[in-house]
Amino acid sequence: xxxxxxxxxxxxxxxxxxxxxxxxxxxxxxxxxxxxxxxxxxxxxxxxxxxxxxxxxxxxxxxxxxxxxxxxxxxxxxxxxxxxxxxxxxxxxxxxxxxxxxxxxxxxxxxxxxxxxxxxxxxxxxxxxxxxxxxxxxxxxxxxxxxxxxxxxxxxxxxxxxxxxxxxxxxxxxxxxxxxxxxxxxxxxxxxxxxxxxxxxxxxxxxxxxxxxxx
Length: 215
Fold this sequence. Notes:
Helices cover 32% and strands 16% of the residues. It is α/β, with parallel strands linked by helices.
C-alpha cells in the first residue's frame, strides 16, 4: 500500500492506549511515539511485575527488566495491566479514560473482543511484516531465517483471528538491507510503524480505506 509518509505536524486529538509486553520491539515503538511527541494516554502490560518466588527461574529477570525499561521510557504515563483473566477489568479502565484507539505492539495472547471493543474508534495491531506474509508471533525472526532482503510493517484492525484483520496502512523500509540484525530491524520497523499509526489517527476523520487480507 502506501509508502512511508511524513507525520502530520498537529497532535492528534484522539486518545490511545499502547498495549505491549515490554519486549524490544514494544520498547522501540514506545520510544518512537515519545520521540514524535505523541505519547499514549495509557500503557497496558499483560502481567504485573512478577514475584520471583512465583516465576520460573530466569523468567522473573526477563519480565522485571521489561517492566523496568518501560517505566524508564515513560515514567509519567499511567500504567494498567491486562492479564488474560482480567481483560474485562482493563476494558472498563479504557472506557473510564475515554480511550479512542488501542495500539498493540507485542502481546502474548489473543485479545478478547471485550477489550478490543472498549476502544471508542478502533483497535490496531502493529505487525513487523508486509501482511499477509509472515503472520505469527515472531515475524522478524521468520524473515531472517528465510534470508529476506526487504522488510516492512503493517498496521491492521484487530479481530478474533491472529494477524488477519483488514490492513489500514503498511510500508516497506526504504531500501533492501543486506545482513540486517534483528535489533536494527525492530528499531526501524517501530519507527516506520509509529509514523503510520500517527498518520492513521490524523486521517481517521477523512475516512480509512481498509484493505482486506488475502488468505
